[in-house]
Design a protein that fits this description.
Strands 4-9-10-7-6-5 form a six-stranded mixed sheet. 32% of the residues lie in helices and 16% in strands. A hairpin with a 5-residue loop joins strand 6 and strand 7 (120-127). It has two domains: 5-172, Phosphorylase Kinase, domain 1, CATH 3.30.200.20; 179-369, Transferase(Phosphotransferase) domain 1 (Transferase(Phosphotransferase), domain 1, Orthogonal Bundle). It has helices spanning 19-27, 56-61, 86-92, 136-146, 179-182, 187-191, 195-215, 269-274, 279-295, 310-319, 337-350, 361-369, 388-401, 404-407; strands spanning 5-10, 44-45, 72-77, 82-83, 101-105, 108-114, 120-127, 150-151, 157-163, 166-172, 219-221, 230-232, 238-240, 247-249, 255-256, 276-277. The longest helix has 21 residues, at 195-215. With 428 residues, it is an alpha+beta fold. Its EC number is 2.7.11.1. It is an enzyme of class 2 (transferase). ATP binds at residue 124. It is a single-pass type I membrane protein. Keywords: ATP-binding, Glycoprotein, Kinase, Membrane, Nucleotide-binding, Receptor, Serine/threonine-protein kinase, Signal, Transferase, Transmembrane, Transmembrane helix.
Length: 428
Amino acid sequence: MHSYQTISFILCSLKHVSFHFLYTFYIFKSFIYRPKSGIKENPTIFSRDMKISCLFSSCYSKSDNEQNNNDYIEVVNDGNFRVFTYKELKSATDNFHASGKVGEGGFGYVYKGRLGDGTFVAVKVLSVELDSMRGESEFVAELATLSNIKHQNLVGLRGCCVEGSQRYLVYDYMENNSLHNTFLGSEEGRMRFSWLSRKHVAIGVAHGLLFLHEELKPHIVHRDIKAKNILLDRNFTTKISDFGLAKLLRDEVSYISTRVAGTLGYLAPEYASTGQVTRKSDVYSFGVLLLQIVSGLTVVNAYQESERFIVEKAWAAYEANDLIRMVDPVLNMNYSKDEVLKFLKVGLLCVQEKANLRPTMFEVVEKLTNNFYMQDVHITKPGLVSDLRTIRIKQKMEMNSSSPSKQESNSIGVTFSSSIWSMSNLAR
């Protein structure tokens, strides 16, 4: 028996958010969970009775002083999500003291906090830039993605707070921080992760992405899968986090972004060059992450003369029929050779240059969790983005050359003729 509560927050503070994001938030009310047959899926619970109402006309036409109590978004939820007051969060984080900072990203800082009932939480602080509205869309994207769904391998969103130009998101606290800090931060950290632990982490991420890509309708593309966005709870259970760049996809429709966002080394080449977002973009990023989990290597080493990127190293090893050299030496041979080779080959399948050759996350999970024979699987050369700086300059020039009225409709035109990526600016 669920107890439901109404969560309201004033839309006037979010009045600069585009209709696209409000619509994104709205359509999440219709999620239906449809597990795929043949997959041993992790437990998933989410409410299907989400009700959202919004007076769009008033929220865009009235001034701050004219806003009234009718201007709000209302979410009927299962009781796990709530609106926090700024006073609560200030108290929980000791006035956002620097000693409590546990992380930071492109969209804000994260602080450890303790609520009045003793529960530990992570509080993300997003500052909205009024000119670009950077931070606002990320805030709404995370609310739209996480406020009404629960999955074992997705970070839990407990609530939010709006205070002036500040946006606060409150999550379950992850005792073991991120995969980047706990696992890749040092050799000592890597030694804590046995092959069994690494296998558990990789499969957990795969299950989380499978849920986002195929079980939810509309589908969700995360767009920023990387080690820093993979959190670990006290039991080292994998939690995908940071949905500030997430996009919804209806059926097989792709999304064209005029602003490529993401992290060098994890970006799929077709997304970086054309702005086209599909689920295969996430598959590419997962493949890079999978190579990292097995090898313990960083995504890119700017100080190396050759094979600076992990996908280059893995491909060279594969071509030399010596893929086993990619396995992290701290594992000290305590692993199944066939299994680590399978995981490495799945990683290479995911990073193939042609998106249509990459597996789906359903296929990835099947390969990783079953006795799948990989000996005769054909793998083609991986794609690689080595210079985001040049891409973004070209995008800006393309946008500036288009009239404002055509920028959205012509967003698919943000393409570049060459698929060969320059290494010249990598170490700058």
